[in-house]
Design brief:
This protein is α+β, with helices and mostly antiparallel strands and about 170 residues long. The protein has a single domain, classed as 3-Layer(aba) Sandwich (Aminopeptidase). The protein has 6 helices and 7 strands, in the order αβαααβββαβαββ. GO terms for molecular function: acyltransferase activity, transferring groups other than amino-acyl groups.
């Protein structure tokens, strides 16, 4: 690991999202999807997947809801990523990191925190929705592919993976 990566991991802090974080979380997701370089999705599929600015209200609702735990990752006072646990569906719905902070360990910690929350909340089997290109990232912490799911987003069908892990081995 390079010294730069160690510095980012050492300074990354995690906190509960607040309603006023909605715009920056939307921007983080938008930037992360915009930077995806993969043969798994076409340019049109990636464009459909990127949230429109109207989705900011969806972020606010999730942050204010009792159903979701939304965690914000910060480094040097800047939001660099986030993760979302859907308690009702017993699922990690999202983990996104700004492209300039990817592959520095920032996404691993919120996944572990969300797993811990799921386990403490009595969730026996945690699922998550993964993009096709993030499959290997989630295999590292022992998630297994359960099924491939097609979701229609803005009239475009996108394939995602539903992955699962027993909370007996979470964190």
């Amino acid at each position: 690991m390079s010294p730069t990566n160690r510095r980012v991991m050492a300074t990354a802090r995690f906190r509960e999202a607040e309603t006023n974080d909605a715009r920056v979380l939307w921007s983080t997701k938008h930037s992360a999807i915009n930077a995806v370089e993969t043969d798994e999705y076409t340019t049109a599929e990636l464009a459909a997947w990127m949230p429109e600015s109207g989705a900011i209200s969806d972020f606010r609702r999730a942050i204010d809801s009792e159903t979701f735990d939304v965690i914000v990752a910060e480094a040097d006072g800047e939001t660099v990523g986030y993760g979302v646990l859907n308690r009702l569906d017993e699922r990690i719905d999202a983990v996104f990191v700004l492209p300039e902070h990817s592959r520095q360990g920032i996404a691993t910690s919120p996944v572990q925190q969300l797993e811990s929350r799921a386990s403490m909340g009595g969730i026996a089997e945690l699922t998550l929705v993964s993009s096709l290109d993030a499959r290997e990232f989630y295999r590292g912490p022992n998630y297994r592919v359960v099924e491939t799911e097609t979701r229609a987003i803005d009239g475009t069908d996108l394939e995602f993976l539903i992955m699962s892990k027993s909370c007996d081995v979470c964190v």
